[in-house]
Structures are given as structure tokens and as C-alpha cells.
Amino acid sequence: MEEYGDRVDGRIAAWGMAFEDGAEVVGTLTGTHLGVRSPESALRWFRRGGRVRARLVWL
To answer: What's the predicted TM-score (pTM) here?
Structure first.
């Protein structure tokens, strides 16, 4: 998810599934598909700098 400011607002930026050897992630706005080494490594694709913070939320 992406959080704007100090918990002012947020959105789901992507969803995915984690596996033993990596993770598959799909962006919610663009539908971009990423194959990454770990769920944590996908965060760099959603960091924008400034007051927008990307973080993982497990359901």
C-alpha cells in the first residue's frame, strides 16, 4: 500500500502472492506484472519519495 503523509490517506498500490523462491506482484493502476525475489524487494517499484511511503500489508 502507499500512505500519503502521516496516515492522512492511502491506497492499495499492488497485490501479489509470495512463494518460497520469490513473489509475483500486479500494480492496481497499470496492471504491471512484476516477478521479484521477495515481497520486500517489490517496494522499490512503489516508492515515490516525499511524503508517500510504500509498505507491505499482509492479509
So the answer is: 0.75
C-alpha cell read off for 8: 492522512
Residue 26: its H or E element: strand 22-27
The rounded distance, in Å, linking the Cα atoms of 44 and 55 is 10
Pairing between β-strand 52-54 and β-strand 33-36 as defined by DSSP bridges: unpaired
List pLDDT tens digits, range 33-56.
999 999 999 988 887 777 788 889
Give domain limits for the chain.
2-54
What is the Cα–Cα distance from 19 to 55, expressed in whole angstroms?
A: 18
Phi/psi zone of residue 39: left (φ > 0), alpha (ψ -120 to 50 degrees), beta? alpha
